[in-house]
Amino acid sequence: MRHQLLKYALGLGAVAVTALPALAGHGHHRGGGCAGCGNGGTLLSSGAMVAGTACGDCGTAVSGVAEQTRTVYVPQYVTEKRLVTSTEYRNEQRTRTRTIQKRVPRTESRTQTYTVNVPQTQTRTENYQVRVAVPYTEEVPYTVQVPVTRQVEQTYAVRVPVTRQVEQAYTVNVPYTEQVEQTYTVNVPYTEQVEQTYTVQVPVTEQVEQSYQVCVPYTEQVEQTYQVCVPYTETQTQSYAVRVPYTETLTQNYTVMVPYTEQVEQPYSVQVPYTEQVEQTYTVQVPYTEQVTETYTVMVPQTETRSAMRTVCKVVPVTTMKSVTCDQGHYETQLINVGGGCSDCGGAAVSSGCGSCGGGSVGCGDCGGVAVGSGCGSCGGASLGDACGRTIARRVYVSNPVTTEVPVTTYQRQMVQEPYEYTVTTCRPETRERTVNVTKYRSETRTRTVNVTKYRTEQRTRTYAVTKCRPEQRTREYQVTRCRVETQTREVPVTRMRYETRTRTVPVTRTRYETRTRTVPVTRLTTEQRTRTVAVQRCRQEQRTRTVPVTRYRTEQRTRMVSVCEMTTQNRTRTVNVTSYVTETRTRTVQRCRYETQQRSRDVTYTVMVPQTRTRTYDVTVYDTVPEEVTETYTVCVPHQVQREVDVTVCRRVPQTVTVPVCGGNVMSNGVVLGSGIQVGSGCVNCQ
C-alpha cells in the first residue's frame, strides 16, 4: 500500500511541474489584483498543486511538495503460545503367569551288539614272469653330408635415396577479432505482495452424553450333588516267575594251521650270448657335379611420374545481404491545450458558485486571486472545463525506423579438386641365363664284414624255500552262563475304589446387564477461511546490449621449402660364400638291447578280515517334558492426554506510521481541502 501511495504522489508532482511554465503570469483579476502582488496563483482541476510567489498582504502560497503523516497496516508474522492437547504414551510394568514346558534330562544305559572285522595276516607263494634286458653291440653304416664353401662374385642393384628442396605453396587461415554489438534478454526479479486465502482446521470440543451397558456380577447359593471315589486297600496273593542264573563248563574242538618250510628245486632257462662274423652288402650314394644352364627372371626398377587429383579444403569469402533496422527519429515541439485558465479573471475555478467574491473564493475583487466556483461573478472567474483553456508546448520524440540492406562477408569452407604429380618406382621383369653347378648322386654296391651277436638257450637249476601250513586239531574249555525259570509267591496290597454320593452347597457367580450414562468429550474440526499477504518473486524481461568480440578468419597464400626424397638405382658388386655338400659314408658302433622272459617266484603276504561279534554298553540322554509355572514381567504402553504449549506463527496487521509526500501549498487561514486530499492556500484575506 505504501508503494502505491508513493507512485500516486510522484505522478501528481510530475503534472504540477509540467503545468507551471504555462500557467505563470495569469494572477490578475478583472477588477484589478492585490496591491504589490506578483504572479498570481494557479489552481488545476481535481486536486492539482497551487503555484505562485509572495502576494504582499494577501497571504503566502508556497509551491512544492508537502509531507503528510499517515497510518498504514503492515502484515507481520508474530509467534504466539497456544495450548495443544496431545496424546502421549508411558510404559507400565505388569506381571503375568504362564505355563512353560521344561525339558528335564535323564541318563539311561543301553546295551548294543555289533560286528567287527578283525584283520588276519596270511602268506602264499606266487609264480611270475620277468622280462630281462640283455645288451649287445652292433656296427651301423651311415651317410654324412660334408659342406664345401667357395667364393662367388655377385652383382646386385641398390635403391639409393636422393633428397632435393622443392618450393611448395599452401593456404593459411589468419584469425582476426571484431567487436559486434549483441542484444540479449535479462530477467530482472522484483517482489510483489499478493493476498492469499488459506483454510485452517480449528478443533472444537463438545460434551456428548453417551449410554453404555455394564455387566454387574452377583452370587447365588446352589445345592449340588456329586459322586466321590473313596479308596480302600485289600491284600492279594500273587505268583511271579524269576530267572535264576547258573554256570556250566563246556569243551570245544578247534583247528589250527601250523606253518613249516620246505626246500624246492626249480629248473629255468638262460639266454647265453655269442658273436659271429657275417659278410654284408650295402648301397652307397656317390655325389658328382655337372654344369647346367639356368634361366631366371630379374625385376629391374624404373621411375615414372604420374598425375592425379586430390581434394583440398579452402576458405572462400561469401558476401550476403542482411536487413538492419535503425531508428532515425527526431524531436518535435507539440502544443497541448490544458483547461483551467481565464483571460479576464486569470484564475481557475475548482468547485461550485463564487457569488461576488463570497464564501469559498480565493482572491476575488482587487486581489486578482482564483475563484472557486463555476461562475466568477464580479471577479470575472471561469469554471474549470469551459472554453477558457491554456496551451503549453513540450518536446516529443518521433520514432522513424528505417530498414536498410547491409553486405555481410562470411567465410565458408569448400572442398576443391586440384591436380598434382607424384613419382612412382615400378619394376619390369627381365629374363636372363646363368651356368649353375648341380650336384647329382649315383648308386654303388659295396661289401663289409659285420659282427653279429646271437643267443643260445641253456637249462639251469636253482633251490628256494617254500613256506606251507598243516592243520592240527586242538581242544579247549570255556565257561557258559545260563538261566533257569523258578515260580515264587508274594503278598501284594491292592488299592480299590468305591463310589459314594454326597451333597454340597456351591456359591455360583452370575451377571446381569445394567444401562448407565456418561458424558464424553468429542473433538470435531471446523473449517475457517483466513487471509495472509505473501511476498511473491516475479521477473520482468529487459532488453540489454553488449559488445562481444568475434573471431573471424582471412585466407593468406604462403610458400615454404619442402624436402622431397627420390630413389635412384645403382649397380654394385659383392663376394658371396656359396656352400655345397659332399656325401661321405661312415661307420659307428651302436649299443642295442633285447629282452628275455624268465620264470620267478615270491612269497606274498595278504590280509583277511574275520568277522567277530562284540557287545558294548553306552549311555543315552533322554529328555522328559515337565510343566512349570513361570512369572514374567512385560511392558505396556498406556496412553494419556497432556496439555502442551506450542509456538504458532500468526500473520497480524500491525499499525505503522509513515510520512508520504503530498502535492500542495501551505494552509492559510481559510484553507480549502480538495477532493483528492490536496490543500490549497486561501489567497487574500482582505477581499470585499
Protein model, in words:
With 688 residues, the chain is mainly β. 3% of the residues lie in helices and 80% in strands. The protein has one helix and six strands. The chain has one helix at 2-23, and strands at residues 65-327, 330-339, 389-398, 401-663, 672-673, 679-680. The protein has a two-stranded antiparallel sheet with strand order 1-4. A hairpin with a 5-residue loop joins strand 5 and strand 6. The radius of gyration is 71 Å and the shape is flat.
Short description:
The chain has one helix spanning 2-23, and strands at 65-327, 330-339, 389-398, 401-663, 672-673, 679-680.
Topology:
Layout: H1 2-23, E1 65-327, E2 330-339, E3 389-398, E4 401-663, E5 672-673, E6 679-680
Antiparallel strand pairs: 1-4, 2-3, 5-6
**Uncertain regions spanning at least 5 consecutive residues:** 14-64, 340-388, 664-688
How are the strands ordered across the major sheet?
1-4
Ends: how far apart? Answer: 45 Å
What global shape is seen? flat
Determine the fraction of residues in helical runs and give it as a percent range.
under 10%
N-to-C series of helices and strands: HEEEEEE
Q: Give average pLDDT, whole number.
A: 75
* Strand composition percent: over 45%
Q: Main sheet, how many strands, which sense, barrel?
A: 2 strands, antiparallel
Number of helices: 1
What would you call the structural class?
mainly beta
Please state the CA-atom Rg, rounded to the nearest Å: 71 Å
Kindly state the number of beta strands: 6
